[in-house]
UniProtKB/TrEMBL annotation:
Molecular functions (GO terms): identical protein binding; ornithine aminotransferase activity; pyridoxal phosphate binding
Pathway(s) the chain acts in: Amino-acid biosynthesis; L-proline biosynthesis; L-glutamate 5-semialdehyde from L-ornithine: step 1/1
Enzyme class (EC, first level): transferase
InterPro entries recorded: Aminotrans_3, Class-III_PLP-dep_AT, Orn_aminotrans, PyrdxlP-dep_Trfase, PyrdxlP-dep_Trfase_major, PyrdxlP-dep_Trfase_small
Family affiliation: Belongs to the class-III pyridoxal-phosphate-dependent aminotransferase family.
Biological process (GO), any one: L-proline biosynthetic process
Known cofactor(s): pyridoxal 5'-phosphate
PANTHER family according to UniProt: AMINOTRANSFERASE CLASS III, ORNITHINE AMINOTRANSFERASE, MITOCHONDRIAL
Protein's name according to its UniProt entry: ornithine aminotransferase
Length: 423
């Protein structure tokens, strides 16, 4: 193996030998701890992407690391041809944690979404009496649910879709945050589910109206349609509560069922479910839905393996024990307050929006401009890593273990960079 001694060397290798399916900032990371990352040259950065919210618990969390190392030396993978002694405890733990009867464990987020789609369709045919092969699932415009052929079939991002057809049928796309469009779509024949992100992360952190989630669930329920929440990015404390569908409930779970909580019929989790150590995703539902899946009808070689089960259980324990939802809520408010001052002061920053520690600043320039990219390059130079999305939006989502003092230091860095972009 070639030893990396400089960032340029690593970039050249990736450029030459790797498929060009990403456009990374030219920073080569070699180490992480908590809210920090270090590059090959030893420069330290605050991480404001958190691997798209997969490391809510902070990089290389010592408790998760210990649990993982212990399990690695004991048992890692047996397949589901046999039982294993970690899966049952994990299933009990995660279902009680989130308040569902059953869980179906997978690995990546996209697999979780695929699982939810299959589950909803099968439920539709077997429990709702939808005519075979005619099930429809309602989705939102500008959704991001992953990269499989079926999932990109109902995306409207041309970059994600174009020349990857033929596409999978059976999806209806409506505008996000639009209850009357949802009610209209629900009238169509064969609708089995509404699949939605409670806050659209990849689209640029779009927070819907306060009552959108509750009204959407009610509209679905009145038509016997499943409400599926994709909380792969918003869940597990990121938005200041255990789940974004918790509304303003501040309990650390299992949810105390405040009236702000909207229980999805199917909940999809991924990313921070393992604290960034290992791909673990999960689909949660109650018995009347989950029981439509029988042996041989769905599965995954790695899904539910003892290593993933142990890591996920520990990652969830950390979220609760360290009260990360509460910290995300508190720091999120501070961050938006500070960024609002930046927006008021500097024309280059147009607006700030978000919830908990999932926030975005919209740059006052076109999506085609390079301003947001240049700002992110300057932020990196000043020791803070963030990445533009859709050209002119910068997402700011640090690990949830950040302290108030660190957050203020980061806001100072961001403000300093914005000040340099005033023309
Ligand atoms: C990241 C993400 C996915 C896909 O997860 P992968 O692990 O990358 O397959 C799906 N839905 C949402 C909302 C996401 O943010």
């Amino acid at each position: 193996m070639e030893t990396i001694t400089s960032s340029n060397q690593a970039i050249e290798l990736e450029d030459k030998y790797g498929a060009h399916n990403y456009h990374p900032l030219p920073v080569v990371l070699a180490r992480g701890e908590g809210v920090f990352l270090w590059d090959v040259e030893g420069k330290r950065y605050f991480d404001f992407l958190s691997a798209y919210s997969a490391v809510n618990q902070g990089h290389c969390h010592p408790r998760i690391k210990e649990a993982m190392i212990e399990q690695i030396g004991t048992l890692t993978l047996t397949s589901r041809a046999f039982y294993n002694d970690m899966l049952g405890p994990f299933e009990k733990y995660i279902t009680e944690y989130f308040g569902f009867d059953k869980v179906l464990p997978m690995n990546t987020g996209a697999e979780g979404v695929e699982t939810a789609i299959k589950l909803a369709r099968k439920w539709g045919y077997e429990r709702k009496g939808v005519v075979e092969n005619h099930a429809k699932i309602i989705v939102a415009e500008n959704n991001f649910h992953g990269r499989t052929t079926t999932i990109i079939s109902f995306s409207n991002d041309s970059n994600a879709r174009k020349n990857f057809g033929p596409y999978t049928d059976g999806f209806i796309r409506i505008p996000y945050n639009d209850i009357s469009a949802l009610k209209q779509a629900l009238k169509e024949d064969g609708v089995v589910a509404f699949l939605v992100e409670p806050i659209q992360g990849e689209a640029g952190v779009y927070v819907p109206d306060n009552n959108f989630i509750r009204l959407a669930k009610e509209a679905c329920a009145s038509e016997n349609v499943l409400f599926i929440a994709d909380e792969i990015q918003t869940g597990i404390a990121r938005t200041g509560s255990l789940l974004a569908v918790c509304g303003n409930c501040t309990c650390e779970g299992p949810c105390e069922r405040q009236d702000t909580y909207t229980k999805p019929d199917i909940l999809i989790l991924g990313k921070a479910l393992s604290g960034g150590f290992y791909p673990v995703s999960a689909v949660l539902a109650d018995n009347h839905i989950m029981e439509v899946i029988k042996p041989g009808q769905h599965g995954s070689t790695f899904g539910g393996n003892p290593l993933g089960a142990k890591v996920a259980m520990t990652a969830l324990e950390v979220v609760r024990d360290e009260k990360l939802a509460l910290n995300a809520r508190k720091l999120g408010r501070m961050f938006r307050e500070r960024m609002q001052m930046v927006v008021d002061k500097y024309r280059v920053a147009k607006l700030v929006r978000g919830k908990g520690l999932l926030n975005a600043v919209v740059i006052n320039d076109t999506p085609e401009s390079s301003t947001a990219w240049e700002i992110c390059m300057k932020l990196a130079e000043n020791g803070l890593l963030a990445k533009p999305t859709h050209g002119n939006i910068i997402r700011f989502a640090p690990p949830l273990v950040m302290t108030e003092e660190q957050l203020h230091e980061c806001c100072d860095i961001i403000e300093g960079v914005f000040s340099q972009f005033e023309k």
